[in-house]
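Bug #77: duplicate submission created two jobs. Keeping one. Sequence:
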Amino acid sequence: MVDRLKKGYIIFTLFVLGLVFLGIGCTGSENSKDSFPAKKTSSENAGAQEITLKGSDTVLPLAQAEAEEFMKENPKKSVSVAGGGSGVGITALIDGEVDIATASREIKAEEIKAARANGINPVEHAIAYDGISVIVNPQNPVSELTFDQLRGIYNGSISNWKEVGGEDKPIVAISRDSSSGTYEYFKEEVLHGDEFRPDALTQPATGGIMGEVSQNPNAIGYIGVAYLDGSVKGLNLNRGNGSVAPSPENITSGAYPLSRLLYFYTNGEPSGLTKEFIDFVMSKKGQNLVSEVGYFPIKK
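Kept job's structure:
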């Protein structure tokens, strides 16, 4: 009798221990799922209440103004905006770090190739017109440059202001760094294959160029027209068809020789909050903001 009781007790104990170990195993399985969550599907991302934009410093003030107004109308939704340059924004899109890359140039073929290799399908959205203004210090008597003169200044073949109608003083050329879409556009449109002069001073942001030119009577730089203010002087440009000012009419008509489009890039066709925001930018109210910030609407 005692032996049978002992045997029954042992069997019961083993049964309880088995249940305990089984419970631990199930718990471990659940914890494993929690530790390695699956990636969100596109439909889940479409319901997000926060998106991130990054890229062009030229587009930055416009993107910030659009985001602020959009969030006023949609207080439960968040749009985060950062600069850094067109190349920085496109790289962030390729790496899946942002919802929208902002750019002041078209995406390059090699960037599209890198994006597709990473499972990203860049889709382009033109949002506004912009012009690049060549700027000098207000004390500089030069008010106009031909394209040949501008090219000579930036490739180094022209080094003194007296060569272009100014005073006998050395030219201090200032440029954006190579991550900037404005740098890429300027190099393509003005230098036509030449390299920037080796002594050109580079600045990581438009504000740096503005600061240098406003303080140095011998300096020259280039910026988005929206940044123009009284601290610097914008030059007229002559590409062989007469002197043309960087006015709204000349930029939107294409008469001004350094006119361009500004872009958003998304991964595939936008959906959810990303689509809502882009639709807002392209709406009448959003395009009115384009004008208020100092750019030029792509939609009348």
